[in-house]
Amino acid sequence: MDKVYNPKPVEERWYRFWMEKGFFHADVNSKKKPYTIVIPPPNVTGSLHTGHALNNTLQDILIRQKRMAGFEAEWLPGMDHAGIATQNVVEKALAKEGLTRHDLGRDEFVKRVWEWKEKYGGEISDQLKRLGCSLDWQRERFTFDEAYKKAVLQTFVRYYQKRLIYRGEYIVNWCPRCESAISDLEVQHKDHSGFLYTIKYPLVGQASRLSILVATTRPETMLGDTAVAVHPKDKRYKSLVGKKVRLPLVRREIPIIADELVDPEFGTGAVKVTPAHDPIDFEIRERHHLESVKVINEKGEMTLEAKGYEGLTREECREKVLQDLEEQGLLERKEEYTHSLGLCDRCDTIIEPLISTQWFVRMKDLARPAIEVVKEGKVRFIPQRWTKVYLDWMENIRDWCISRQLLWGHRIPAWWCIQCNEGKYIKSETFIGAGPSRVEPRYYFFPEAVPIVSIEKPDSCPKCEGSKIIQDENVLDTWFSSALWPFSTFGWPEKTEDLERFYPTQSLLTDPGILYLWVARMIMSGLEFMDEIPFFTVYLHSTVLTAEGQRMSKSLGTGGNPINLMEKYGTDALRFTLTSLESQGQSFRFWENRCEMGRNFCNKIWNAARFLLMNQNDPSSQITPDSSSGSGTKYELADRWILSRYHRTIQSTTHVLESYQFHEMAKGLYEFFWHEFCDWYLELVKPRIPKHALNQAQGRIMDPALGIALSILEGTLRLLHPVMPFITEEIWQMTPHKGKSIMVASWPEADPKFIDEEVEKRMGLLMDIITSIRNIRSEMNIPPKKETDCLLRTKGDGIVNFLNENEGVVKTLAKVNRLSVGTNLEKPKASASAVLSGVELFLPLEGVIDFEVERRRIEKESQKISFELDRLKQKLGSSDFLTKAPEEVVESTRMKREEFETKLQTLKGHLKSLQEV
């Protein structure tokens, strides 16, 4: 073995080996029980970030462990065409060429997007391979491949035939930059520091020119007001309900109405009602039969209805409206006000609520069975708190707007007969490029127009036999196609062997941010089309934040490329670090240096394996504990202890994985391998390793230490393999083993006969004694090479005998010259002490240290710690710090305070010992 572990050539070699051997591919004809995961398909919008690295590492851990445990493990890869997100990034690329999507037209633009997909889709696959993901690349899918398109169109037609899809006029979230409707879940809400404007609305027919004061954050939309609303129980306005006001600037008469949706605490308690540009006002319109006046168009510009302001942008109109109101004495006041602003999740443009004709899915009937399967526990959420979040949303679900005004996406399979719909549409022409020969006709069909819904374009209209038929220009919401992912990827709507074998899947691991967008819709779709849930367990992992606490995002440029981390630290280091940070929490902060922990662990594993394998020079090294326990083999306490701890670790690792406690898995393996196996067992048996030789004459093992160590190393490598696939394969291939690869080796099974609580308890006492002596030596500044005496006062003869039998262990590892053990020992003067379970420990200091020098040092250190402790207590006593500082910073400060308090108490104890001299 090389002296230093070099991950890059190891990673390249073993991933190529696994691919060539076909270890990732699941056999549809296998007799093994299937275990299936479908990857949350990444968007084809660039490269993956560290959050994706966490998500895919966790999936790979599960799939590798199940493969080793004897399952036919299938992890299906693929990518999402990501309609609006992909169109946005391609448009940005076109802008650098001085072009827009309108310059290219639909066909040419779609061609450009396919080119983008070929370029960046390959990059994403390369990243997943570098991460070590054991994906079944032979089954890779794309939500826009031909077979998938068929599934999407079939879904639309089936929904429409069941009257679950309809076309209607409704208020939607409209992005003026994307020029498309987007769902509520694609709107990002941010606090915005703006202004609240109070405007006078003059009452009609009032000789005294009385007005009602109306508060708004959007004065530009007042041009489309069709009422003023107050709460029915608001006594201030009771006498005004039913009267009319004259809309400022426009001079249109509008009524004052009462509606319970009005918040009497907001502003003056009287609000403007603009049904065409506010979802709450739209609901009020429906109840009070108000008209809608659209004053802002799809480009975010004022319409002809905004008389005197037409053609202005929303921002320009606001300034002019405020100026005109002030000039007319109608602007009562302007005050600073913080309110929530809806932004497009893809481009950060301010959303404009607009009344628009769109396609919708009726959700209530689809949601009902999806609610029941969760309530019945057929689908479970981990962490469990997400169950309530899911149910709350599903029980209040609204119809889903599925149409998007984009060029990239699944075109809606609806067709319009021009003859049948005469008078029910508007035709316009869009000029593409410079020449008149490149004109694209655009059609807008009114809500009353009747479509023909069919996967294929009809040759003629089934009603009038007319031949002039055009396809609906809208495309489907990306999530409409993504909702079919768990079963369409295996061949649905065809009844394939893969679908029969691998559906339903077992686990879904994803980000909580798409619980509604994706997870809920997959459950509804699976029940609707497969009559079966798509997965049994949904694990919603932590969100990875930047060091500053920002959400990792490709579009925001805050994601970071995990390839850079893998190049610097190694893939296993990154995977182990992320796994150790994943604790079923809401989020955690990540920065590059955190990978040092994972890299250090890799080096520890490498060095321990190198030490053992360098001593493997004869057949006896291959003897395992099971076969080396025969006649003549002597197991010492340390051997029995490490075997007990190893088999307990197998139990706990298997258990926490089944419970999706990834953090506990990483922590448990780290503690066992680094501290128990390396720091204790290997240190204890180092003197015994050279004695490990085969007694040819007697045919038995003289000392089993190396055999035990190698056996535990090999088994622990198998436990670590799902998290750290590369280094474990590299080392495993050098150990005595069975099989072609560690990834298809069997998962370790615990043997209860090796688990011994009494042995663990006794070894634990020795470890506590050694650790206490080491701590005292460090705290009292005893030179490392200087040996000391030690007295152990016990409460029973049984412990005395045990400690005398193992005095060599204490002497060697704690640098003790003379060890005295007894039940009636007196505490020597000027000695440091520690109280353990059933044992008092005394370390005489006379002749070992300079008391006066040490007293001064401890006093000085105590003063320093006291000062720091006061500072920490003051910080933790500040309400500003507790409420404004990040949670992990507050927790870290608390832990530091506790650490300093413990250290101060220890120093005071040592000072007291020195003062007795």
Q: How would you characterize this protein structure?
A:
By secondary structure, the protein is of the alpha/beta class. The chain has 26 helices and 33 strands. The strands form twelve sheets. It has a four-stranded antiparallel β-sheet with strand order 6-5-14-16. The protein has a four-stranded mixed β-sheet with strand order 10-11-9-12, with helices on one face. The protein has a four-stranded mixed β-sheet with strand order 31-30-33-32. Helix 16 packs parallel to helix 18, helix 17 packs parallel to helix 19 and helix 19 packs antiparallel against helix 20. The protein is globular, with a radius of gyration of 36 Å. The model is unreliable at 627-631 and 693-699 (pLDDT under 50).
**Secondary structure category:** alpha/beta
Question: Spans of 5+ residues with little confidence (pLDDT < 50)?
Answer: 627-631, 693-699
The shape is: globular
Q: Helix count, per DSSP?
A: 26
Query: Could you tell me the mean pLDDT?
Result: 90
Q: Radius of gyration, Cα only, in angstroms?
A: 36 Å
| C-alpha termini separation | 54 Å
**Which strand order spans the largest sheet, edge to edge or round the barrel?**
6-5-14-16
| Helicity, as a percent range | 40-55%
As a percent range, the share of strand residues is 15-25%
Number of strands: 33
Biggest sheet overview: 4 strands, antiparallel
Assembly state:
single chain
